Amino acid sequence: MSESIHVAVGIIVNPAGEILLAQRADHRDQGGLWEFPGGKVEAGETVAQALARELLEEVGITVSHSEPLIRIPHDYADRTVVLEVHEVRAFSGEPRGREGQPVRWVAPEQLSDVAMPAANRPIVNAVRLPAECLITPPLDSDEQWLSVLKKSLHQGVRLVQLRLKELAAERVDALTRKALALCHAHDCRVLLNADPQQFAHLPVDGFHLPAGALSRYPARPVAEGRWLSASIHNRAELVQAARLGVDLGFVAPVQATATHPDATPLGWAGFKELAAAAPFPVYALGGMQRHDVTLARQYGGQGIAGIRLFVEGED
Ligand SMILES: Nc1nc2c([nH]c(=O)n2[C@H]2C[C@H](O)[C@@H](COP(=O)(O)OP(=O)(O)OP(=O)(O)O)O2)c(=O)[nH]1
Ligand SMILES: [Mg+2]
């Protein structure tokens, strides 16, 4: 295969939280589809430099600061691209299509309805997902479990993975419904760690699959429009998760953790390698503290996840 094409892609966010899209001209590859402005990284340029140059050329804005969001390798039939996606919130100038292309602002929740190149699906997921995810602790009592959830919601969590292992189906059902009522009142999305087919009737936002379950499904077991996430500990599981078309992954353990004392930590270097290869956003899991979010982003992750993230004084 020929060498991959590095592309600097800008998620330009306005003060209302909307994202700028531009339409590719019909005669170009991916013609007629909507894209995030950007273009090829030229020899000798950093991604940030290429992005600043492309955004000035294409939409007439001057970038003051950009932050890496996600890196997506993607094979098209005729070429391989690596999209280096940065978020741009600090810029001057009013964006306009300087090459005659139509541009428009779109709310993050509406991005999934726009026709975009295939490589953009994980980018849209990364834009829509928060930087922190709570995983619920082992269940001692319903009250204790729900109180951790409430406390975390008050601290701003916007994504929760409900872990209700080894419970009877009726208990999973009842607790999930209680958690959903709390979470949705706080605009927090809910992933249920349970069999997606068995619990398809629950109005959760998505399902989470443990790594050991990935090989059990011949195809994505969750309809489009609902999230699918997976636990990933190594390259082989990452490949399985990609085969199923998961939307997000939890890579673990990044650091030593009390819940899995026998597992060998990946370290940030191991996390970085898996994050770079993942064609979807990944959270760092295992021994995370809230301030690790900066490191996780730096190493190519979407952010951090953990059971004790929002409980003060613990890791
Ligand atoms: N800019 C941009 N490119 C994307 C997106 N999604 C996606 O698959 N691509 C692909 C399409 C192209 O093969 C490649 C980007 O190249 P480009 O055509 O924008 O490059 P460029 O601005 O430097 O244009 P040119 O001067 O080479 O014509 O990446 C996206 O959201 N934004
Ligand atoms: Mg371009």
Task: Give a description of the structure.
One of its GO terms (molecular function) is 8-oxo-GDP phosphatase activity. 8-oxo-dGTP binds at residues 24, 35-38, 120. The protein is α/β, with parallel strands linked by helices and 315 residues long. It folds into 2 domains: 5-128, Nucleoside Triphosphate Pyrophosphohydrolase, CATH 3.90.79; 132-306, Aldolase class I (TIM Barrel, Alpha-Beta Barrel). It is built from 7 helices and 15 strands. It has an 8-stranded parallel beta barrel, surrounded by 4 helices. Strands 4-1-6-5 form a 4-stranded mixed beta sheet, with helices on both faces. Magnesium ion binds at residues 38-39, 54, 58.
State the main characteristics.
15 strands; about 325 residues; eight-stranded parallel barrel; binds 8-OXO-2'-deoxyguanosine-5'-triphosphate; alpha/beta; mutator protein; TIM Barrel; ThiamineP_synth_sf; about 25% strand; binds magnesium ion; hydrolase; Nucleoside Triphosphate Pyrophosphohydrolase; metal-binding
Helix share, percent: 10-25%
H/E element order: EEEEHEEEHEHEHEEEHEHEHE
Bound molecules: 8-OXO-2'-deoxyguanosine-5'-triphosphate, magnesium ion
If classified by CATH, what would the architecture of the largest domain be?
A: Alpha-Beta Barrel
- Judging from the principal axes of the Cα atoms, what is the shape? globular
Outline the biggest β-sheet.
Answer: 8 strands, parallel, barrel
The structure class reads alpha/beta
Poorly predicted ranges: none
Total number of beta strands: 15
Binding site for Mg(2+): 38, 58
Catalytic activity: 8-oxo-GTP + H2O = 8-oxo-GMP + diphosphate + H(+); 8-oxo-dGTP + H2O = 8-oxo-dGMP + diphosphate + H(+)
Family: Belongs to the Nudix hydrolase family.
Domain Nudix hydrolase: 4-131
